[in-house]
Amino acid sequence: MSQDLILFLQLVASGVAIGSIYALVALGFVLIYKSTDVLNMAQGEMLMIGAWVSFSLIVDYGIPFVPAFLLTLVFSVFLGLAIERAVLRPLIGQPIISVIMVTIGLSIALRAVVIAIWGTQFQRYPTPIQDSVVNIGPIPIAEVYIWSLATSLLLVGGLTLGFRFTRMGIAMRAVADDQQAALSVGISVRRVFAMAWIISAVVSTIGGILLANIQGVGIALSAVGLKALPVSIVGGLDSIPGAIVGGILIGVLENLSSGYLDGPLGGGVREVAPYIVLVLILLVKPYGLFGKERIERV
C-alpha cells in the first residue's frame, strides 16, 4: 500500500473520530431544537465548562479520572437544569428570536465565568489514555482517537434508541411535534424542556472531555460549539441521524482539507471548510440532508 493511500486513510480515520465527537455535541443542538424550537448558542461554552470542571477535579483536587468524570456529569445535570429554570422557563411563550438572543448572552456570561476562574491559559489535559499508536492494518491511529470514537458512537447510539423507545423520548418527540396536543394528553412540557437541557449539558460535557483529551483544555474549546452548529444544520436541525452523518462528514472534511490544502494555501482551511460545505448543501437541500421540510398551507 502506497504512503499516499496510508496518509489518506489515516486522515479519514482520525476525521471520523473527531466527527463523532462533533456529532455528540450536535445532538445537544438537535435535542433542544426538537423539544423547544430554540437554537442554543451557548452549547460551546457548556462544553468548555464541563472540560474545565473535570480538569480542576483531577489536577487541583487529585481525584482520579473516573470519579472526576462522574462528578462532572453530576455538575452538568445541575448546570443544564439551572439554565432551563433561569433562562428558558421565564421566556416560554416569547418570540423564538428573543430566546435565541438570550442564549447568546448566556454564552458570553459563561465565557466570562470561565475566564474569571481559570483564565485564558491553554492547559494539557491529564488524559488517562496512553499516548500510543495502534495499527489497524497498515493504518496507524492514535489510541485516544479510538477511545473517543467508541465512546461517542456508544452514546449517540444510546441516545438515538432512548429518544425512539423510552417514555421520556416519546414524550420529547410528542412535544416537538405539537406542544398543545402533548399537554392535552398529560405530558409535562416543562419537564420535557428540563430534560432536553439536562441531556444537552451532559452530552456537551462528555464531548468537551473527549476533545480535551485530544487537544487540551482552554478557551478555544468553546469554538467547537460553532463547529457543531453547521454539523446539526447540514444533517437537519430536527434529525438525530442527520447529526451523526453531518458530524462525521464535517470531521473527515476538516482533516482532509488540513492535510492536503493547508500547506499550499497557507493554513486555516479546516476552519473554513465546514461553512463552505454548509452553504453548498443548503443551496441544494435547504432543510439539511435529513431535515423534514415544513410546508405551511394558508
Describe the 3D structure.
- It is a single chain.
- The chain has a single domain (about 5-285), classed as Orthogonal Bundle (ABC transporter involved in vitamin B12 uptake, BtuC).
- The model has no long low-confidence stretch (mean pLDDT about 85).
- By secondary structure, it is an all-alpha fold.
- A two-stranded antiparallel ribbon has the order 1-2.
- It is globular and about 65 Å long.
- It is about 75% helix and about 5% strand.
- The protein has helices at about 5-35, 45-60, 65-90, 95-120, 145-165, 165-175, 180-185, 190-215, 225-235, 240-265, 270-285; strands at about 135, 140.
- Helix 1 (about 5-35) runs parallel beside helix 5, helix 2 runs parallel beside helix 4 (about 95-120) and helix 2 packs across helix 9 (about 225-235).
- The N and C termini lie far apart (about 60 Å).
Under CATH, the topology can be stated as: ABC transporter involved in vitamin B12 uptake, BtuC
Q: Which architecture would the CATH scheme give at its second level?
A: Orthogonal Bundle
Low-confidence stretches: none
How many domains would you count in the coordinates? 1
Largest sheet: 2 strands, antiparallel
Which overall shape is indicated by the principal axes computed on the Cα atoms? Answer: globular
User: Topology as H/E string?
Assistant: HHHHEEHHHHHHH
Trace the largest sheet across and list its strands: 1-2
Number of alpha- plus pi-helical segments:
11
CATH level-1 class? Mainly Alpha
Would you report the number of β strands?
Answer: 2
Distance between the termini: 60 Å
Mean pLDDT, rounded to whole units? 84
Sheet/helix structural class: mainly alpha
* Proportion of helical residues: over 70%
How large is the share of residues in beta strands? under 5%
Rg from alpha-carbon coordinates: 19 Å
